[in-house]
């Protein structure tokens, strides 16, 4: 679904290189690729050329990459977790989580109506199990497709507002079918990564789970239980992955798998989660038992969270490095749910490829750029010698490496023409400092496949001749100045979809949760004061942990 503008694009101005250094360049984009890069400002004369000449206080970055996001939950409000948990299997089946997030999501999806006007009356009636027969079967099926489109477009719009141009697949992890993208590239569409259609990127929720016939205690009263004795069972996804590795990675070109998501024993010293430790131990043992374990080196495997690994054991670090296994670090979500996270400096010093991921709206960051800013705060709070250039690499070059060295995350000839243009506080401010101090209100535009698809409205009215939709004024002060060009073939009305989401959320919040003031997360972090307050709270909790 990702499309090109069809017109050549020239960007003249300050460009950020792989080390975060700035220099004036002229970038020519043709057919969605960077065709040439020349030093200085070089006048070009091409038919139908779009010229973006940057102001002195603007700089072009490579598009950001987010390898960990649960997009179907990204319209939801912040979740007030009732406990600090040991691992993910506890809160996933907690009654409060099920009621406030899982059932909330199912409520919206069950009651979504394709043609919005008049879909809901004063009594809150819509498409339910009881009255569904009043709607033609095709209409209900189309509504299901439309609600998935809503999740996809709104999540990708949140991402693109923060400079993201490539993210983990947008709809339903562990779905091996052909999955659509809506605005930006995602890992569920191999052709958008420059891969043959037969080369799948496998996104996995779990390789193992507690069981069989065992339900982890989900009460907050048991949040600190010793989990080391829980029974463990393989999920079919693990067998799929092992079979692919054993056969020379013939099925999956790359895999992104949640593993050992729980208390790390790093910030909470001496208190690692037992089940998470065993989860990785069993994973590693199964790989060693393969007749051809050396194929793991070319599996392009990425482990998401991976907090429960024993990073004080050098053989664990060697295993990750020697098998080219990447780690996705999500410090915001880790700290909210577990008050712990990985020893990132240890991984970097050992040569392990580390990426950043935003996770999801209930307990994570708005987009991966925000995750980078929190990672900077985290490293400073712990006096970790991690540079701004290293952090930039975690959302550009490193995830591209994790995916098997796809042509993304850098501004180089032959790479995907994916960028975002940021306004700095002044022309003299270093680009990497601006990345830490500015917010998504300062994004002039985001470009995917050579197509300017999001940014300031005046750019679209003065320079581009494309259709666009305004971000609704109800989203906030910064959002009022932004517009998005959504592929017309999607037939998607942003204002209408947001209105329907809000109506359904208002009804569920008031009638089921008895929280009439509960609100959906806003599209831009700079407009989302509740979200920003949550991030400040996490920072204060980090201070308490470090005392």
Automatic annotation (TrEMBL):
Domain of life: Bacteria
Limits of the Amidohydrolase-related domain: 293-452
Classification via InterPro entries: Amidohydro-rel, Metal-dep_hydrolase_composite, Metal_Hydrolase, MTA/SAH_deaminase
SUPFAM superfamilies for the chain: Composite domain of metallo-dependent hydrolases (SSF51338), Metallo-dependent hydrolases (SSF51556)
Keywords tagged on the record: Hydrolase
Gene Ontology terms for molecular function: hydrolase activity, acting on carbon-nitrogen (but not peptide) bonds
Protein name: Amidohydrolase family protein
Protein source organism: Spirosoma foliorum
């Amino acid at each position: 679904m990702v499309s090109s503008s069809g017109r050549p694009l020239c960007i003249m101005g300050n460009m950020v290189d792989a080390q975060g250094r700035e220099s004036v360049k002229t970038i020519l984009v043709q057919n969605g690729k960077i065709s040439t890069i020349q030093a200085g400002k070089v006048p070009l004369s091409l038919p139908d050329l779009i010229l973006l000449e940057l102001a002195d206080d603007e700089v072009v970055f490579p598009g950001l990459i987010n390898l960990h996001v649960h997009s179907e939950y990204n319209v939801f409000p912040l979740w007030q977790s009732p406990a600090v948990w040991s691992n993910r299997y506890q809160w996933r089946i907690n009654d409060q989580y099920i009621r406030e997030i899982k059932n909330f999501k199912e409520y919206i999806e069950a009651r979504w109506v394709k043609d919005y006007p008049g879909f809901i009356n004063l009594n809150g009636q819509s498409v339910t199990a009881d009255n569904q027969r009043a709607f033609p079967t095709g209409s209900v099926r189309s509504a299901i497709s439309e609600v998935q489109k809503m999740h996809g477009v709104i999540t990708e719009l949140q991402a693109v507002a923060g400079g993201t141009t490539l993210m983990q697949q947008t709809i339903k992890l562990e779905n091996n079918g052909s999955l659509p993208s809506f605005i930006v590239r995602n890992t569920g569409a191999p052709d958008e990564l420059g891969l043959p259609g037969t080369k799948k990127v496998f996104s996995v929720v779990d390789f193992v789970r507690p069981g069989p016939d065992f339900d982890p205690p989900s009460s907050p009263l048991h949040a600190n239980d010793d989990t080391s004795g829980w029974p463990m069972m393989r999920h079919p996804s693990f067998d799929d992955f092992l079979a692919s590795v054993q056969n020379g990675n013939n099925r999956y070109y790359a895999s992104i798998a949640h593993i050992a998501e729980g208390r790390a024993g790093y910030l909470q010293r001496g208190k690692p989660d037992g089940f998470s430790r065993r989860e990785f131990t069993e994973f590693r043992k199964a790989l060693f038992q393969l007749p051809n374990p050396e194929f793991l080196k070319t599996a392009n495997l990425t482990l998401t969270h991976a907090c429960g690994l024993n990073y004080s054991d050098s053989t664990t670090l060697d295993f990750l490095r020697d098998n080219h296994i990447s780690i996705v670090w999500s410090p915001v979500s880790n700290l909210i749910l577990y008050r712990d996270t990985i020893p990132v400096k240890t991984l970097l010093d050992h040569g392990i490829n580390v990426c950043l991921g935003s996770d999801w709206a209930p307990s994570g960051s708005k987009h991966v750029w925000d995750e980078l800013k929190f990672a900077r705060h985290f490293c400073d709070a712990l006096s970790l010698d991690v540079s701004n250039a290293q952090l930039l690499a975690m959302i550009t070059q490193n995830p591209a490496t994790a995916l098997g060295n796809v042509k993304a995350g850098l501004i180089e000839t032959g790479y995907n023409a994916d960028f975002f243009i940021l306004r700095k506080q002044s022309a003299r401010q270093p680009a990497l400092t601006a990345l830490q101090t500015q917010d998504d209100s300062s994004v002039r535009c985001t470009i995917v496949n050579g197509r300017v698809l999001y940014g300031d409205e005046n750019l679209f009215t003065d320079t581009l001749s494309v259709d666009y939709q305004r971000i609704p004024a109800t989203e906030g002060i910064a959002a009022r100045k932004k517009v998005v060009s959504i592929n017309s073939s999607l037939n998607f009305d942003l204002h209408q979809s947001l209105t329907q989401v809000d109506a359904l959320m208002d009804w569920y919040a008031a009638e089921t949760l008895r929280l009439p003031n509960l609100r959906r997360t806003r599209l831009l972090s700079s407009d989302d004061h509740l979200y920003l307050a949550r991030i400040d709270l996490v920072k204060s909790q980090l201070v308490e942990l470090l005392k």
